[in-house]
Amino acid sequence: MATAATASATAATRFTRLASVGLRARTRLPTAVRFQRRVLTTTALLKTVELKPKAQGQPETLDYRVFLVDGGGRTVSPWHDVPLRAGDGAFHFIVEIPKESSAKMEVATDEAFTPIKQDTKKGNLRYYPYNINWNYGLLPQTWEDPTSANDEVEGAFGDNDPVDVVEIGERRANIGEVLKVKPLAALAMIDEGELDWKIVAISLDDPKASLVNDVDDVEKHFPGTLTAIRDWFRDYKIPDGKPANRFGLGNKPANKEYALKVIEETNESWAKLVKRSIPAGDLSLA
User: Model's pTM, two decimal places?
Assistant: First the structure.
């Protein structure tokens, strides 16, 4: 584990580099677009039950985008505008990749309104080498700070994205769908040196939702699922010739209490980001 002094020095170096070149190697949007926050729709007034995905373009093309619109037809950001908390200990979850599909969809964190698009590499659309077996997406209003080292997970820095969710319910959700979930566990994946949390959760409308409330319940009612999730994310890059991902925290899933701590900390990081206490680089705050 990195010492506090080493982590601090590394963080300072990385902060300087990120501030100078941008947090991601992406096309830079005009400053007015990247940093403008809208006042038309606010978290306090947003009715999440009215949110609907709206697709533009054809699936599996470079132009394909899935935006989120409210009941009045106004476009909102699935990352910034959807409230994190859904009440009664539940959280909102934005579906990026439906279960049993392989197109690598993700929120475009550098585009206005942060729509969902298919990831690319060298101009080509990206696919997982095999289907993902669970609904996969993000927790809104969270951010894994790439300038902050986590001393509990090998001093790894955040991956500059919202926190990922692996939803284990039986229903196949749709791209852009907003679900209410309860966290059950957390996996500390380390991807090429970056910390990339995976929160294991279940949709409140799943038939087994009332039976699972913590990490031990997952093993009881979904036997083998936690191991399958860890192994899937550990190995999915191997077919492309890359090394396997690693996991911190003893290679084991942390319990619900720890997952809630991760969510709280990354929500605080997001709040600092949108308040511009931390440089946004190429990230869109619109």
Answer: 0.86
How far apart, in whole angstroms, are the C-alpha atoms of residue 135 and residue 174? 9
Beta-bridge mates of residue 95: 137
Per residue in 238-271, pLDDT (tens digit) is: 999 999 999 999 999 999 999 999 999 999 999 9
Task: HSE, CB side, 13 Å, CA atoms: give it for residue 262.
Answer: 31
170 CB burial (10 A radius; 0-12, 13-18, 19+):
exposed
The distance from CA 107 to its chain's CA centroid, rounded to whole angstroms, is 8
**48 phi-psi bin (left φ>0, alpha ψ -120 to 50, beta other):** alpha
Q: What is the CA radius of gyration of the chain?
A: 18
User: Which of the residues 64, 127, 128, 236 is marked catalytic?
Assistant: 128
CA distance 286 to 282: 12
Angle value at C-alpha 12, between 6 and 13, nearest 5 degrees: 90
Tokens 């100078």 belong to 20
Is 128 known to be catalytic?
Answer: yes
DSSP string, 200-236: EEEETTSTTGGG--SHHHHHHHSTTHHHHHHHHHHHT
Between CA 147 and CA 157 the distance in angstroms is 6
96/100 Cα distance (integer angstroms): 12
